[in-house]
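Dear colleague,

As promised, here are the two records you asked about, laid out in our usual form so they can be pasted straight into your sheet.

NAME FIELD: protein one
SEQUENCE, THEN STRUCTURE:
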Amino acid sequence: MLNKIAFSIGPIDVHWYGIILGTAALVGLLLAIQEGKRFGIVPDFFMDLLLIGVPSAIIGARIYYVAFQWSDYKNNLAEIFMIWHGGIAIYGALIGAIIGGYFYFRAKGYPFWRLVDICAPGLIVGQAIGRWGNFMNQEAHGGPVDESFLRNTLHLPNFIVTQMNIEGTFYHPTFLYESLWNVVGLLLLLWLRRRPFLRAGELFFSYLIWYSIGRFFVEGLRTDSLDFTGPTWLAAFMNALWSPMKLVFEPGVMTYGGNVRISQLLAVLLVIAAIVVIIVRRKKGYANAHYADPIVSTKAPAAKAAGLEEEFDTKGADSQL
């Protein structure tokens, strides 16, 4: 088992989990900064976004988890704030980051859909790297498997196989499955953003679709999913969608005794919603701007000057009439 603590400074232990998450945020930031330069957006803009996005993501991740596990917290409200005890959710982090980003973009005068497009590759690479924090903590894994499956079927290196041995039982490295899926997704997004047909907002929707598809199938292997007891038809529908995986894998048990995994249901809803929104925005003319079009802040000096000039020309024409 790998040591969760990277190093100590006096009484303070620095965990690999925190280092890995910090690295994930930094790599995502660098990707956004690099792409932002193509549109004349200064690096400081994205650095400030990170300062807003990370706390928003942590708060959103915690609220999401607590909301679905309220019975564990309602009699001990102080535990809600003790995130070091575990209990955060990636979808909640995404929701929190989007909300924080929306208000930040609005304050800076930038169009929301154009900026989330730029941030999408940074989000997915951050998730690809961040999953290795789960690896170090031996968490977010799947159900039991034979050691031979990890070594001889998946041909995983010894350090991964050893870390997947938890108290004498080997488990599915679902962190690895999702990380690799996200790496492929990153390559897809980098290819898509140079395609002339791509409209504003569609790179972000592509990220949602790709990530959610992978999350749906990987989630079915996990043993720590948030779940609830839903209608029989809904559980049957979710099981039918996941059934191709049964040709190779056994589904993980549901820890809380429900019959529907919340992350799987949300993943399906996000895929459907993203596709519908893309179609509707195109048909209604809401997505006329292309990804490659210039991005201009309504609060930038140049934009204000252009606005004043346009207003002056209009008044001049009115006076001549």
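NAME FIELD: protein two
SEQUENCE, THEN STRUCTURE:
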Amino acid sequence: MDVKDSNGNLLSEGDSVTLIKDLKVKGSSQTLKRGTVVKNIRLTGSAAEIEGRAGGSVMVLKTEFLKKA
């Protein structure tokens, strides 16, 4: 399974990615701002999602809103 960012670059465990769009966090009033760097990502079972620590908590992010840092 190949996990790719919004530009088509391959992502792997431990990579750093940057948000390309402001994202609202479900169940919270928090918003992750464009340009936020998420370090040391983990791959999930889905090719469209990664897991990483952003905004002080671990969350699942869709790869269509990320680019490799």
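A couple of things worth noting about protein two: Residues 17-68 form a domain with the SH3 type barrels. fold (CATH 2.30.30.40). The CA atoms of residues 23 and 32 lie 5 Å apart.

Best,
R.
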